[in-house]
Amino acid sequence: MIILVLDNLGGSLKKSIRNIVGKGRISEKDVKELNKEIQRALLKSDVDVRMVKALTDRIKKRALDEKPPKGASAREHIINIVYDELVNIVGKGTEIPVEEQDIMLVGLQGSGKTTTAAKLAYYFKNKGLKTGVICADTHRPGAYSQLKKLCGEVNCLFYGEQESEDAVSVVKNGLKELNKTEVRIVDTAGRHSLESDLITEMEEIEETVGADRTYLVIDASIGKGVKKQANAFNDAIGIDGVIITKLDGTAKGGGALTAVSETDTKIAFIGSGEKYEEFEEFDPDSFISRLLGMGDIQKLMHRAEERLDPEDMDMESMMKGDLTLKDVYQQLESITKLGPLKQIMSMLPTGPQKLPDDALDITKEKMEKFRIIMDSMTDEELEKPQVIGSSRVKRIARGSGTSREEVNELLKYHKMMKKLMKNMRGKRLPMNKMMKKFGR
Ligand SMILES: Nc1nc2c(ncn2[C@@H]2O[C@H](COP(=O)(O)OP(=O)(O)OP(=O)(O)O)[C@@H](O)[C@H]2O)c(=O)[nH]1
Ligand SMILES: [Mg+2]
Fold first, then answer.
1. In total, how many domains does the chain have?
2. Which subcellular locations apply to this protein (predicted)?
3. Which residue, 122, 158, 264, 390, could crosslink 154 as a Cys pair with Cβ 3.0–4.6 Å?
């Protein structure tokens, strides 16, 4: 999930930003060092040299010229500047409306269209829209069964005609067949390059679909080449947005991301794996927040909203420092629904690096055990875990059919969560800024 660009830039940025901690007004030397780190990381990710130079020049100028806002430390000030400037260079994302629509996917051979069709179907299905996918790839023999299989996994409707050679007629029939669905996604055949007869077919399909949105699917591993492709397709048929795939497998992601920002189009989604969940809306704000180690609260909130009943988990209370075991109990239930703990933690502002490694390897079985242990506790113990001494530990272990070690492990886990939530709250400036941005 955490893509390579983030790893490159994130790690070194966090380190150099940490070095600024505790100092007064930022010095020229600090800015220089930070900029060196930024340059190294971005160039490694294939971001354009001129762009990197311009970015670090702006950061330097602003860091030295602008006075930190009242009350902000040098570190908070520089984080804000870097954040603004980075959001600037990756460009704006596009609005992804959650409404009835027809979507068409185009792109070069092997760029990830078919995989993305299933990912998009899953995405809109999760938003509560009835979704169907049409296979308009009548060129590649395996295309039909590949897409059909993926749709089966995602559990969305599928339309295709295995024997047909006429993509336009398949699309016509498919739209009729799927007229009860709200989102229809058309997967087209891969283009070897932009040859004129293929452009004609693409145009014909587009006309038939009357696509509300045509997305160009591009493989991130071509790095800066993304720009040329995006412009060529845009000139040929007009595209509404770019979907960059395979950001998990390449260090060139930085090149791909920034190259699109130089074109007339915008990045709509990014794919970061072969699985249908490994896909997200491209949101520059949250992208950069993650880079700077501010965590991705917004995404976590979204995910929580998608998968949980609203009453299930209250993020606000999760972030309160006074976490009881009852909260932990509820959290454990919620968290299992949200996904692997390690992944959730990586989205939180503190990141996983501040926690002991084994603390995150809480398996489902262990969570289950924790809950059984808590069932053997009294209300008082759940509310005020500090009253639990060694004799109570013994009693609880016996009562729940577990061991003292396991009870102690739970108590340790509670302490850790409590600290984590407190830390999250303590991230003053960036957190507040983010929350404001996201209307919370
Ligand atoms: N690692 C990774 N692999 C991906 C991603 N998206 C697609 N793939 C893989 O890339 C390969 C090609 O994907 P397809 O979806 O078949 O590409 P396509 O554009 O439909 O290909 P054609 O129909 O032949 O033009 C497959 O092996 C996919 O599993 C991604 O985000 N990350
Ligand atoms: Mg395909």
1. 3
2. Cytoplasm
3. 122
d(C-alpha 106, C-alpha 321), whole Å: 49
Average pLDDT over residues 188-211: 85
397 is in an annotated binding site: no
Pocket of ligand 1 (CB under 6 A): 107, 109-115, 137, 140, 143, 190, 245-246, 248-249, 271-274
Distance CA 175, CA 46 (A): 41
As a whole number of angstroms, the distance between CA 402 and CA 374 comes to 11
**Would residue 42 count as lying in a domain?**
yes
184 Cα to the center of ligand 2, angstroms: 16
Residues 269 and 305 in one domain: no
Please give the pLDDT value at position 313.
45
* Nearest alpha carbon, ligand 1 atom 17: 112
Pick from 244, 347, 344, 343: which is nearest to 289 by CA? 347
Per-residue pLDDT at 302: 47
**Mean pLDDT, the chain, integer:** 79
End-of-domain residue from the set 90, 115, 140: 90
- Render the burial of 141-180: b for 16+ CB within 10 Å, e for the rest: eebbebbeebbeebebbbbbbeeeeebbebbebbbeebee
Residues 6+ apart with CB under 8 A from 171: 134, 136, 186, 205, 208, 209
Out of 193, 205, 233, 274, mutate this one to test ligand 1's pocket (max ligand atoms within 8 Å of CB): namely: 274
Instruction: Give the CATH number for residue 340.
Output: 1.10.260.30
> When comparing pLDDT for 97 and 431, which is higher?
97
Output the CA 348–ligand 2 centroid distance in Å. Answer: 35
Q: Which of 1, 4, 114, 247 to probe ligand 1 with, by most ligand atoms within 8 A of CB?
A: 114
From 49, 67, 90, the end of a domain falls on 90
Query: Rounded to whole angstroms, how far apart are CA atoms 244 and 107?
Result: 11
165/34 same-domain check: no
Shortest-distance ligand to the CA of residue 144: 2
Q: Report whether 402 belongs to an annotated binding site.
A: no
56 with 82, same domain: the answer is yes
Pair 415, 341 in one domain = yes
Q: Give the structural domain span for 274.
A: 101-282
Q: Same structural domain for residues 362 and 308? A: yes
Q: Whose CA is nearest to atom 23 of ligand 1?
A: 190
Asked if 158 contacts 148 with a C-beta cutoff of 8 angstroms, the reply is yes
d(CA 285, ligand 2 centre) in Å: 31
Confirm or deny that 108 is annotated as ligand binding: yes
pLDDT band at 430 (very low <50, low <70, confident <90, very high): very low
**More confident site: 7 or 279:** 279
Residue 154 sits in the same domain as residue 195:
yes
CATH number, residue 277: 3.40.50.300
- Residue 110, annotated ligand binder? yes
| Same structural domain, 233 and 132 | yes
Find out whether 107 is annotated in a ligand binding site. Answer: yes
